[in-house]
């Protein structure tokens, strides 16, 4: 009987190549087959694509209450036949997200006005490094500034760059939650709630200073483009609840 030759180990180069191919496949699947949480990036892209030279294009920013409580159709009608309201108000957004979205919407001659709808605490709520909207909206040229205002350690900064580079890595906790949910090992994650592990260590504690920094950046950038920017405080009941 001919002895069976023991299995030969793959050369290291092949192992690395297979590993890279697997990671590349996961990245492609994540970017093209996964609907990431957070509506602001999609709404910003849709607004930019629909700007018209013959229209009065007004962009609205705000949190979830600005999204839910206003009749955007009625606002558009008040602007006249040429008025178009692009609502970018979305849950779990803050001044960092609005600044990043605005930098892509300031197309010369198209955007006619910007409105920021806010309630108590909206303009001073610290931006969240682990929130999806900021990293989905940011350009590579923004990363250093965003990291400097979000992180207090070098590890946090490195994590910021890694999350920006890899869509799959950015949403790995969501993917992991989905796999365990499909296996019946845990309950599905509630909408809008980041799974465990989404928040990195080394996040700066002075969130209000960062919020005001990006608010100032939003205003300066918009004014420099000669686009009016208006802040509207939404009505509240006693105790800060929406009316």
How would you characterize this protein structure?
The protein is an alpha/beta fold and 243 residues long. It has helices at 12-33, 40-50, 64-69, 72-78, 95-105, 132-137, 140-150, 154-165, 167-170, 172-182, 207-224; strands at residues 56-61, 83-87, 111-118, 229-233. The chain has a 4-stranded parallel beta sheet with strand order 2-1-3-4, with helices on both faces. The termini are far apart.
Q: Biggest sheet, in brief?
A: 4 strands, parallel
Low-pLDDT parts are none
Helix count? 11
* Helix proportion: 40-55%
How would you sum up the global shape? Answer: elongated
N to C succession of SSEs: HHEHHEHEHHHHHHE
Structural class: alpha/beta
Instruction: State the distance separating the first and last CA atoms.
Output: 86 Å
Quick recap:
The protein is α/β, with parallel strands linked by helices and 243 residues long. It has helices at 12-33, 40-50, 64-69, 72-78, 95-105, 132-137, 140-150, 154-165, 167-170, 172-182, 207-224, and strands spanning 56-61, 83-87, 111-118, 229-233.
């Amino acid at each position: 009987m001919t002895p069976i030759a023991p299995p030969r180990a793959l050369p290291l180069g092949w192992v690395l190549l297979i590993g890279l191919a697997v990671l590349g496949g996961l990245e492609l699947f994540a970017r093209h087959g996964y609907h990431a949480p957070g509506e602001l990036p999609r709404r910003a892209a849709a607004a930019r694509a629909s700007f018209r030279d013959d229209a009065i294009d007004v962009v609205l920013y705000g949190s979830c209450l600005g999204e839910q409580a206003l009749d955007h159709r009625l606002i558009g009608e008040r602007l006249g036949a040429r008025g178009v309201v692009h609502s970018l108000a979305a849950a779990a957004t803050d001044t960092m997200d609005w600044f990043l979205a605005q930098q892509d919407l300031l197309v010369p001659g198209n955007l006619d006005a910007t409105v920021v709808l806010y309630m108590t605490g909206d303009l001073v709520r610290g931006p969240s490094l682990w929130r999806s909207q900021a990293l989905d909206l940011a350009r590579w040229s923004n990363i250093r500034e965003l990291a400097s205002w979000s992180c207090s350690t070098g590890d946090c900064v490195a994590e910021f760059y890694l999350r920006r580079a890899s869509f799959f890595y950015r949403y790995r906790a969501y993917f992991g939650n989905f796999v365990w949910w499909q296996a019946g090992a845990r309950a599905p994650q509630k909408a809008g709630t980041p799974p465990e592990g989404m928040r990195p260590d080394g996040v700066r504690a002075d969130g209000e200073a960062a919020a005001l920094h990006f608010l100032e950046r939003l205003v300066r950038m918009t004014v420099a483009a000669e686009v009016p920017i208006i802040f509207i405080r939404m009505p509240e009941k006693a105790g800060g609840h929406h009316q």
